[in-house]
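Practice problem: predict the structure.
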Amino acid sequence: MFADATGTGGDSANDGQVHALNALQVEAADLVVTKTSAVISDPVRGTTNPLRIPGAVVRWTITITNNGAATASSVVVDDPLDSGTTYDPGTIVVGGVAEDDDATGADETDPDGADWNVTTAGSVTATIGSIAGSGASTTVVFDVTIN
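Answer:
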C-alpha cells in the first residue's frame, strides 16, 4: 500500500513517511565600529605636541571591521559632528581614497562615496560598497576644528 523509500532520520521503507534532513548554514556579516581621534595641530604649538584647544584640528578615524564570514554590502556610516566643532572642507577619506564633500560625481560611485551635510544635515556620511569578512576592515577619516 505505501511504496515510499527509507528516508533519513530513522523512518522505515513503506511506512508512508519520508524524512529529508539537511544542515543549513547561515553566514552573516558581523561589523565592529570604532572611532578614534588625534589632534593634528593647534594655533599655539602647531604640530608639535598639539593640544585640544580652540582652533585645534582634530582628525577622526572611524574603522569598520567585519568579523563575520559573509561580506557586508552597502555599509553606511553616518557621523554627526560634535557640538563645538566645525567640519574642515575636503578632508574626507574613505578606504584611503580622498572624497569630495558633495554626494555627486565619479567619487560617489567608486563604489565608495562620502559627503558632508548632504545626506544627513550636520553629518559626515560615507557609503562603503562592501567589506569582506574574516577581519577585513576599512576606514572613514575626516578633520574638524575645535571652535
